[in-house]
């Protein structure tokens, strides 16, 4: 926010640093507030094959080397909706998504289909990392992913840090773009999700991307990878 406002402040000869700008935003109730709304989206109590965690010992060094997939919930006035996301680990760009009123395998498959269409590099065997949810481990989805050149990877425990990038992006979309609020219906939710992801990819700057947007970082590929995972310094760059 400060980077985007800095030029306008200088044009108006307003001398304010980053902390002062945040103080003004806080005083005017403009900062994002967190809530405690919670809904379970992961069912890992199944007998389908769970792939090993392929990202725990690597540091992505380029875009489309590894994707993180996850499902988050959206509360509607009289129901729940579910948002499947596929995010590039290196650039933090959301490559594909699908909003639906259920959590069937078709939903996550359509999100991955979009991600595949949006790829701009010819990578071989992109890692597809997710939690151990039944949607990602079921044969229908696993076969589709493998047939389209993805190497499946899943978390080994129940620690959210094992899929930290996906969890972080979920939080940004909810708390910074209003998806944490109760939305009237799924039609409105579709419009809000489309708008949120467009702004997130193309306008939302990240400290971890040297203050670039995910879309620009995805093309430039100049930054060092930053993870939200504990123990990152012990991992090896690949």
Write the layout of secondary structure elements.
Elements: H1 2-11, H2 18-27, E1 58-59, E2 66-75, E3 80-88, E4 94-100, H3 105-117, E5 126-130, H4 134-137, H5 139-147, E6 150-154, H6 164-177, H7 186-202, H8 214-220, E7 236-237
Parallel strand pairs: 1-7, 2-5, 5-6
Antiparallel strand pairs: 2-3, 3-4
Helix pairs in contact: 3-5
Account of the protein in words:
The longest helix has 17 residues, at 186-202. The chain is α/β, with parallel strands linked by helices and 238 residues long. It is globular, with a radius of gyration of 19 Å. A hairpin with a 4-residue loop joins strand 2 (66-75) and strand 3. The strands form two sheets. It has a five-stranded mixed sheet with strand order 4-3-2-5-6. The protein has a two-stranded parallel ribbon with strand order 1-7. The chain has helices at 2-11, 18-27, 105-117, 134-137, 139-147, 164-177, 186-202, 214-220, and strands at 58-59, 66-75, 80-88, 94-100, 126-130, 150-154, 236-237.
Essential attributes:
238 residues, alpha/beta, five-stranded mixed beta sheet, two-stranded parallel sheet, 8 helices, 35% helix
> Average pLDDT across residues?
84
Q: What global shape is seen?
A: globular
Amount of helix: 25-40%
N to C succession of SSEs: HHEEEEHEHHEHHHE
Whole-angstrom Rg: 19 Å
* Number of helical stretches of at least 4 residues: 8
Number of strands: 7
Placed side by side, the strands forming the largest sheet appear as 4-3-2-5-6
Question: Quaternary arrangement of the chains shown?
Answer: single chain
Cα(first) to Cα(last) distance is: 33 Å
β-strand percent reads: 15-25%
Overall structural class, as computed from helix and strand content, comes to alpha/beta
Q: Which consecutive residue ranges, at least 5 long each, have pLDDT under 50?
A: 36-44, 231-238
Main sheet overview = 5 strands, mixed
């Amino acid at each position: 926010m400060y980077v985007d406002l800095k030029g306008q402040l200088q044009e108006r000869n307003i001398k304010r640093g980053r902390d002062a700008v945040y103080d003004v935003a806080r005083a005017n109730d403009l900062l994002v507030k967190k809530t405690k709304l919670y809904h379970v989206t992961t069912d890992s109590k199944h007998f389908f094959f769970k792939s090993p965690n392929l990202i725990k010992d690597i540091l992505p060094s380029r875009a489309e080397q590894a994707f993180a997939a996850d499902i988050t919930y959206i509360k509607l006035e009289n129901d729940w909706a579910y948002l499947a996301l596929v995010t590039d680990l290196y650039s933090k760009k959301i490559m594909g998504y699908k909003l639906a009123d259920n959590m069937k395998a078709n939903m996550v498959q359509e999100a991955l289909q979009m991600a595949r269409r949006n790829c701009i590099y010819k990578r071989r065997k992109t890692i597809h990392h997710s939690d151990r949810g039944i949607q990602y481990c079921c044969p229908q989805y696993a076969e589709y992913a493998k047939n389209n050149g993805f190497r499946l990877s899943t978390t080994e425990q129940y620690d959210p840090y094992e899929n930290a990038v996906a969890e972080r992006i979920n939080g940004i979309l909810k708390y910074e773009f209003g998806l944490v609020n109760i939305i009237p219906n799924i039609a409105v939710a579709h419009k809000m999700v489309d708008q949120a992801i467009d702004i997130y990819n193309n306008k939302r700057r990240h400290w971890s991307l040297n203050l670039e947007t995910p879309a620009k970082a995805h093309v430039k590929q100049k930054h060092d990878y930053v993870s939200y995972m504990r123990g990152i310094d012990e991992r090896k760059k690949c």
